[in-house]
UniProtKB/TrEMBL annotation:
Protein name: Xanthine dehydrogenase subunit A
Organism: Methylobacterium jeotgali
InterPro entries noted in UniProt: MoCofactor_Util/Proc (IPR052698), XdhC_CoxI (IPR003777)
PANTHER family according to UniProt: ALDEHYDE OXIDOREDUCTASE MOLYBDENUM COFACTOR ASSEMBLY PROTEIN (PTHR30388), MOLYBDENUM COFACTOR INSERTION CHAPERONE PAOD (PTHR30388:SF4)
XdhC- CoxI domain location: 15-82
Tree of life domain: Bacteria
Gene: pucA
């Protein structure tokens, strides 16, 4: 079952109330067979736990790694994964397509 936006934002709110940092990842663009539509979300806490999905499991691990850097640096960023990208086989997006994800710290 895919978490709803309400579930994802509730998790982020709960983590913030507990004093934990959080980063929101949002799909901003897709090409080809990307498994989640634009607007899909994933939220990551300061311990690497997450709620939601931006790719149906293809790139979540890499997005969590990027989110941890965003937490530390405090600077939002856009990341891109795809078959033509050098990270395609590392993150498992071998099904085709490309995906761009915006990551921002929730303060």
């Amino acid at each position: 079952m895919i978490a709803t936006d309400t579930d994802i934002l509730a998790a982020a709110e709960s983590w913030r109330r507990e004093g934990r940092q959080a980063v929101l990842a949002t799909v901003i663009e897709t090409w080809g067979s990307a498994p989640r539509p634009v607007g899909s979300h994933l939220v990551v806490d300061g311990e690497g736990g997450f709620q939601g999905s931006v790719s149906g499991g293809c790139v979540e691990g890499a997005v969590v790694e990027e989110a941890m850097e965003v937490m530390t640096e405090g600077t939002a960023r856009v990341v891109e994964f795809g078959v033509a990208d050098e990270t395609a086989w590392r993150v498992g997006l071998s099904c085709g397509g490309r995906i761009r994800i915006f990551l921002e710290r929730i303060d």
